């Protein structure tokens, strides 16, 4: 099945195999529907994956499938990107990486550049079943927009890189989840996908590789090495499918 989506302002298409749909995704959605009905109130699902693994695309496709499959409770997707610290904060604060002091903005996307306290508070509100506001990141403004959307669904799927991170503060997030999903993949494949994505956004090859090696791959390694196992673990295969 061909799924059209927008990622970072770039219109793209991805193909999901019938095997993945029928053997992984539909059974997953049926499991979540049964879990929500048994609980009798909202459930929160967390989907965590390293950069380049296609978590946002998969989350969007699961939302699409849930709304177009009989007997499935619709899924509402939200992301943690709305909790990037504001650009002015990242510019005015620094961090030490590899023994060097640098502006936070140079490593935007690393765990330290997110407002973990605000993310935790919002996750707690969603998990409680309340109808609540949720911020979204605006790439034109380079800043999050508060209460950009309202969360009121019965199955809420939160996607992000660090939701299952075993690091102080981050390791408290998963207590709010009713179900967790993790994606793993080979580092070299993720690097190739991230470079291609950067080039698609307008960067030249050398610029794309430099950015990915300095920023993205550092975050990839954190996700792969320091995330705990999820209830459902998916492996991104070389052909783009899942196992």
Order of helices and strands: EEHEHEHEEHEEEEHHE
Report strand order across the widest sheet: 4-9-3-10-11
Largest sheet: 5 strands, parallel
Helix content: 25-40%
Q: Within the CATH hierarchy, at the fold level, what is the topology?
A: Rossmann fold
Number of separate structural domains:
1
Specify Rg, calculated over alpha carbons: 18 Å
- CATH homologous superfamily placement: P-loop containing nucleotide triphosphate hydrolases
Principal-axes geometry comes out as globular
Give the strand content: 25-35%
- Could you tell me the mean pLDDT? 94
Residue windows where pLDDT falls under 50 for at least 5 positions: none
Beta strands, count: 11
- Span between N and C termini? 17 Å
Oligomer: single chain
CATH class reads Alpha Beta
Which secondary-structure class do the elements indicate? alpha/beta
């Amino acid at each position: 099945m061909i799924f059209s989506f927008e990622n970072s302002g770039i219109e793209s298409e991805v193909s999901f195999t019938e095997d993945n749909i029928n053997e992984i995704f539909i059974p997953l959605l049926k499991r979540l529907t049964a879990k929500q009905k048994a609980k009798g109130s909202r459930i929160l699902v967390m989907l965590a994956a390293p950069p380049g693994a296609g978590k946002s695309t998969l989350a969007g496709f699961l939302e699409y499938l849930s709304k177009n499959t009989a007997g499935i409770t619709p899924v509402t997707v939200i992301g943690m990107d709305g909790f990037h610290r504001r650009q002015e904060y990242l510019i005015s604060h620094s961090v030490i990486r590899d023994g060097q002091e640098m502006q936070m903005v140079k490593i935007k996307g690393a765990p330290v550049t997110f407002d973990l306290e605000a993310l935790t508070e919002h996750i707690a509100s969603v998990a409680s079943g309340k109808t609540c506001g949720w911020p979204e990141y605006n790439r034109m403004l380079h800043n999050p927009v508060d209460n950009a959307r309202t969360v009121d669904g019965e199955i809420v799927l939160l996607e992000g890189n660090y939701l299952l991170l075993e690091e102080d503060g981050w390791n408290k997030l998963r207590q709010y989840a009713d179900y967790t999903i993790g994606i793993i993949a080979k580092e070299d494949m993720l690097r190739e996908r991230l470079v291609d994505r950067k080039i698609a956004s307008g960067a030249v090859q050398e610029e794309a590789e430099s950015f990915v090696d300095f920023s993205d791959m550092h975050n990839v390694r954190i996700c792969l090495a320091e995330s705990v196992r999820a209830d459902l673990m998916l492996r991104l295969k070389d052909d783009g499918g899942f196992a």
